[in-house]
């Protein structure tokens, strides 16, 4: 079974293009250092009629959308090795445009052991 890092991130809609640029660079770096998959998705159908909508979980403000992202690894140990290499990579020192296109303090993040992996 694989191991997943998952993220839910509120991003100002005016910053989506900057976010895409940053995530393409990040995805390339994670994949180069051994991640099995890297996926970033921007909210499209977030006005749900059941459960708790993603925007509510991150207290999205007017003018913000939500990005759901995940990175796949072989195991938690593999994740830890890959992330150590990624964080040591000099390309990770500064975002492409000089500043983060979202508020880092509002990210929802966690590591997950997969229980069904088809």
Structural overview:
With 118 residues, the protein is of the alpha+beta class. It has a single domain (3-45, 53-113), classed as Alpha-Beta Plaits (2-Layer Sandwich). The protein has three helices and four strands. The protein has helices at residues 16-32, 54-57, 76-88; strands spanning 3-12, 37-42, 64-73, 108-113. It has a four-stranded antiparallel sheet. It is globular. The mean pLDDT is 93.
Task: Itemize the secondary structure elements and their pairings.
Blueprint (H helix, E strand, L loop, with lengths): L2 E10 L3 H17 L4 E6 L11 H4 L6 E10 L2 H13 L19 E6 L5
Antiparallel strand pairs: 1-3, 1-4, 2-3
- The structural domain count equals 1
Average pLDDT across residues?
93
Number of helices: 3
Q: Quote the beta fraction.
A: 25-35%
N- and C-termini, Cα separation = 10 Å
CA-based shape: globular
- What is the strand arrangement across the widest sheet? 2-3-1-4
Give a quick rundown of the structure.
The protein has three helices and four strands; from the N terminus they run βαβαβαβ. It has helices at residues 16-32, 54-57, 76-88; strands spanning 3-12, 37-42, 64-73, 108-113. The model has no long low-confidence stretch (mean pLDDT 93).
Features:
29% helix; globular; alpha+beta; 3 helices
